[in-house]
Amino acid sequence: MDLFLIRHGESEGNRAGKLQGCQDFPLSVEGKKQALLLGQFLKSTKLDALYSSDLSRAYETAKAIEKYQHVPLIASEAYREIHLGPFEGKTREEIYKEFPDMRNKNLLTSGIEGTEQVGVITERCKQLINGLSEKHQEKTIALVSHGGFLSIFLMFLMLGDDWYQFHRPFRLGNTGVTKITVKQEGNPVIHYINRDTHLASKY
C-alpha cells in the first residue's frame, strides 16, 4: 500500500497562532489557495481511496483533492487532531500563563487531565494502520489529517508502542505531503516527508 499523509491547509486557527486540537476552524483564504494547489499536484496520482478528518480544515483540503479523483471522500473523527482539552483555542503564551509547568514540555503528550492520553493515541495509530492495510493492500491511498497526529503516526510506524519516549523531529507544514509504502511484512518505507513543492507555483 502506498499511503500519502497530508496535513490540511492553513486554517484561521493557524493564522491566529492558536492550538486547535479538536476545535473546528475553517481554512483561511491562504489555506484555500494551498488546497487548490495540492489538488492539482495530486491530479496525476490515481487514488484508490481518499480519507479525511471530519474537522473543517482537513475536510475542505480533502475536497480539493477529491475534485481531481474518481473516488468518494470518506471523513471520520478517527483521523482528527490530538485532543488537547484545556489547551484548545489558546495561544502558546496563554497556555504557559495558565500552565507554567508546560513551557518546556510537549503539549501533545502532556498528560494533563482532559487531554488525549498516550495510550489512546497509540491505539488510534494501531487502528489506522491496521485498518488501512487490511482494506487496501497493493492500493494507493491518501489521508488528510493534522500535523500533530500525523507526526505522531510517523513515530509510531518507526518505533511502535514506545514512540512517546523519543524526540519527535517531524514538523509538517500546511498541505505538506508525506509518502510511505506499507508492506504486509517488514517495516514501512518512507519515500519523503513534508513535500510542498506545489506551493511554489503561487509565487
From TrEMBL:
UniProt keywords, alphabetically: Hydrolase
CDD domains noted in UniProt: HP_PGM_like (cd07067)
InterPro entries attached to this UniProt entry: His_Pase_superF_clade-1, His_PPase_superfam, PG/BPGM_mutase_AS, Phosphoglycerate_Mutase
Record-linked Pfam families: His_Phos_1
Enzyme class: hydrolase
Domain of life: Bacteria
Organism annotation: Thalassorhabdus alkalitolerans
EC assignment: 3.1.3.-
Molecular-function annotations in GO: hydrolase activity
Protein name: Histidine phosphatase family protein
